[in-house]
Amino acid sequence: MVIGVLEVSLRMEGMDSLKGRRKVVKSLLGRVKSRFNAAASEVSGPLELASRDCAVLGFAVCGSDARILNAVLDRMLDFIEENADAEVVDSRLECINLGDQD
Prior knowledge:
The protein is α+β, with helices and mostly antiparallel strands. 40% of the residues lie in helices and 36% in strands. The protein has a single domain (2-97), classed as Alpha-Beta Plaits (2-Layer Sandwich), CATH 3.30.70.1120. The protein has helices at 18-36, 46-49, 66-83, and strands at residues 2-11, 39-44, 54-63, 87-97. It is elongated, with a radius of gyration of 14 Å.
């Protein structure tokens, strides 16, 4: 089994309320979940970053082929960059091969 994870750091320029920030984050998480059948969550928010205009989102997919998962995560990142009401300032992608566990 292979697990693919993607961490995306976003900056939402001009965000002056937590309600507006939450709307952007929840909308993006929902669209990515439904389009890519991935687990998605906000993994760091304004309390950790001391800012209302930043968010760190985490996404995970699993399968049997690391190359396929890597391609899915690349498409997911492209989708986020094209469709988010925020700027992607950093991203990190990793595939973890669990191999055969005895």
